[in-house]
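Field guide to reading this record: the first block holds the primary sequence, the second block holds the structure written as discrete tokens, and the final block holds curator observations. Each block starts with its own label. This record concerns Glutamate racemase, catalogued under organism Nostoc piscinale CENA21.

BLOCK 1 — SEQUENCE
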Amino acid sequence: MYSSSIFEGNLYDFSDKEPQRAPIGVFDSGVGGLTVLRQIYRQLPNESIIYFGDTARLPYGIRSQAEILQFVREILSWMQQQKVKMVVMACNTSSALALEIVRQEFNLPILGVILPGAKAAVQQGKRIGVIATPATAKSNAYKQAILEIDPEVQVWQVGCPEFVPLIEQNRINDPYTTEVARSYLEPLLQQEIDTLVYGCTHYPHLAPVLRSLLPGYVKLVDPAVHVVSACSQDLELLGLTNTHPPLPTRFVVSGCPQQFAQSAVQWLGHTPLVEVVDLNNTVVSQLS
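BLOCK 2 — STRUCTURE
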């Protein structure tokens, strides 16, 4: 049912007198960014979060750079209106195609997942496989970042167009998903990779499936863990670490709130209150 907003007024507006208490903005095309959110809960338990899922326009991984850039600009503009103190792009496609551009356009700390993930991958192995959305794979963002850190490693990338829709549809345990995963991993296994990078924040949700198909020696790298570690360092450097108890996480989507809530419950352990926002008109309604 719809409820009166618990977020009305200035509940989240600490930007003037106590900027450290302002929320962190986290966004993704859907539930994939919940892997980053869970890491924030673990590593930064005092931080308040606004989570935005652009579910009306997912998947991002088949979009052009121009489309992604437009979407990211709209989301960041909305995040600024919410007076967040920092934004984490919990989306590899956005990080690959838009991060460097929007960092020049917005007076706001913005973190992407690719560089932290690349750094972690290089520490793990020398034969690195990357599974990603087609757009991220095509951008070569991970390969370039990894080779800049260590030119001696070898990197192979595979675009996985079916993964995000299957995860958003709660089909992780579907036998079809296992067969799709097998087909995506096959060329990487032929290269005898020793490390596999989740090149999309949705993909850690597939960990049981992927692990069942991979040799035990292959290390899995989840960039979500490492981008939150970088977030923690940046907050400390900027003097923005919150030491007060956090406010309830806001969940906001551009599409169907019921579908997001149903998909999110298995990752959050509860059914979230989900707001719906029209980024063009910033009209908000809520579903509990």
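BLOCK 3 — OBSERVATIONS
The two ends are 6 Å apart (CA to CA).
The chain has two domains: 19-112+226-287, 114-223.
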